[in-house]
Amino acid sequence: MLHLAPGRLEFHEPPSAIMSQIIDISQLLRTGMPVWPGDTEFQPSWMARIEDGGLCNVGSVLMSLHTGTHVDAPLHFQKNGASIADADLSVYIGEARVINALNVKSIEASHIQPFTAGLPPRVLFRTRSLPAERFDPGFSYITPDAARLLVRSGVKLAGIDTPSVDSAHSEAMETHKILGDAGIAILENLNLAGAPPGVYELIALPLKFAGMDGSPVRAVLRTMDAEARHGLP
Ligand SMILES: [Zn+2]
Fold it and tell me: Fewest CB atoms within 10 A around its CB: which of 6, 54, 144, 183?
């Protein structure tokens, strides 16, 4: 806010900006990080290096679009689904609730039920206190029943801190399909270690890959005061 008085120029931060804090909820992309069995390993390399006489450092990365914190496009599980370049970006920015489901292997409708009144359009499930060091097929997932409740609750984005919203053993990818058919965006492999349960502003924008089925994101939560929360979609 800018207040002009004769001979004086003052700038006051609005209260919401002073109170807002950024929590990084992205996994560190690194050599040796866990990937889905059989998927492309994360492989960084250098096209040019200053220490080798290059004018600058130029890095390059070979990776699956589903490594680390990422979003799934409908094309990931629907033959002719929309690609990530066509995603509606508004779902990746806005009010989100982090729901604690620590050590809950299968997230049921009953875990979501207590929050359905006044549930914001984005829901993130916190099932572990730290990201996994290696791929473990015993990770937590969202049951189809819970996915149906999210649909009925008007949610636009569902996120989880494990490699998939479906169980590692699911062949039908039913939760992906229930969410996808309802137009609900899917955000996976979050790192919610530093995000206690509560309501935040989520920002997790995918890259604009033409014709592709997902994208890594840099996901953050911003803390909000009541006033800031009021105006958010
Ligand atoms: Zn994925």
Answer: 6
Domain range annotation of the chain: 13-29+65-230
DSSP 48: E
Distances (CA, A) of 99 to 120, 129, 170, 180, 183: 11, 13, 23, 21, 21
User: Is 169 marked active-site?
Assistant: no
Contact 140, 101 (CB under 8 A): yes
Tell how far the Cα of 27 is from the centroid of ligand 1, in angstroms: 14
How big is the chain by its Cα radius of gyration, in Å?
20
Structure tokens at 129: 């206190």
Cα distances (angstroms) measured from residue 57 to each of 31, 47, 185: 18, 8, 35
Active-site option among 76, 111, 176, 230: 76
For residue 233, how far is its CA from the centre of ligand 1 (angstroms)? 25
Which pLDDT tens digit goes with each residue over 171-190?
999 999 999 999 999 999 99
Length of the chain: 233
Q: How close is the Cα of 164 to the center of ligand 1, in Å?
A: 6
Ion ligand 1, residue ranges at CB < 5 A: 66, 72, 188
Q: From the centroid of its chain, how far is CA 43?
A: 22
Number of CB atoms found within 10 A of residue 135's CB: 14
Per-residue pLDDT of 112-143, as tens digits, reads 999 999 899 999 999 999 989 999 999 999 99
